[in-house]
Amino acid sequence: MAYSDQQQYFKEIYQQKLTTADEAVKVIKSGDWVDYGWCSGHPVALDQALARRAEELENVKVRGGIALWIPAIFQVPDAASHFTWNSWHMSGIERKYMKEGLVFYSPIRYSELPRYYREHVERNNVIMMQVSPMDKHGYFNFGPNASHLMAACEKSDVIIVEVNENMPRCLGGFEEGIHVSQVNYIVEGDNPPMGVLGNGKPDPEVDRAVASYIVEEIPNGACLQLGIGGMPNAVGAMIAESDLKDLGVHTEMYVESFKDLTLAGKITGARKNIDQGRQTYAFGAGSQDFYDFLDNNPQCMSVPVDYTNDVRVIASLDNFMSINNAVDLDLYGQINAESSGIRQISGAGGQLDFVLGAYLSKGGKSFICCSSTFKDKQGVVHSRIRPTLKEGSIVTDTRANVHWLVTEYGKVCLKGLSTWEKAEAIIGLAHPDFREELIKEAEKQGIWRRTNKRA
After folding, report:
1. C-alpha distances in angstroms, 312 versus 9, 21, 72, 276?
2. CB-based contact 205:303 (threshold 8 Å)
3. Are strands 343-344 and 339-340 parallel, antiparallel or unpaired?
4. Does domain 204-444 sit in CATH 3.20.20.70?
5. Which of 112, 162, 175, 252 is catalytic?
6. Does 55 qualify as catalytic in the annotation?
């Protein structure tokens, strides 16, 4: 068969499988497991079509995560009696709907998620997600959402793709797309703009103070992983202003800072031990300019999360620098990065993967950073450093795993410290207004020596 004949064959298959959103979702039945894919790849036209069927359905269990807009199925009357949303990682939108009994969190170690699909969780009856237009080889690209989508497709009875011309085509190494021969239905959506991800409310003074402590630890040629939020972005901004060069990227989430650092000439990937010259990531979200940067960009390498977050892969990259946030922590060095008591805020994601992998890297360092305090809705200031974690809070990183801890008051390596040394070091990073109170609590808990210096 000539190549031109093959291209025509793919086009014919495409037309045979092309249908409307309303027709496609008719395959969904009460009690089904339906996968919405991931982040900016959540379906739009198909989601709206499923919402229109809400009254005739019950107990439809949906998987998704990091919602960038409110799904239509959330907005139908008495949504929780028809649908249950199971999130692999909570966005603010999903968090809001937990109160209504509609949304539940699925705890994960993100590096393991593809295996969960392949070996453990109940098989999808249907998966439906947005993809980029079919290329001349017959492939639909997952956009910046490779993550676990091929594994999810492998374990789905019916695969429905919703084509969006605005979805960037994200080049990769493997499992970044699916072939037309593997899908059951194709829907051409209304080409909505990509979902935009903001960075929250920054505190420039605090964020830059924290960033300054971290950046001075980063050598030329280091390989970076940045989490989302103001502080990792501040680190990126400070690196852009620094003399650092030949940096690399190997990260779970590709964030806006990486684009900015590349345009500033700081990222080349020239010294990466593997995937040299490529910026490796499992998923990404940001501004429209961010998506334009990722589109058909050979510098950027979209791969599944069981590669990006594999501790062995991370450890193989010299001078690996992992930078992530915390919600709060206690005097034992336990890090909570995902909940407020029993209230789920986000998710574990791959933070522990990178904390472990960076420490195993030759010259590698892992940084957990946070502001020393926060204000509640009433404007009352609280310390993020607590005597013990709030009842019900999740330990994302155990006390033995934390490497560097950073606040605006300094940084400290917690590896190898006894309980009293650790308590002293952590209290030294607390806001001065809370240090005496923390010392008293440390004394009550038997982790403060009489010879400890007063913080």
Report:
1. 42, 42, 40, 17
2. no
3. antiparallel
4. no
5. 252
6. no
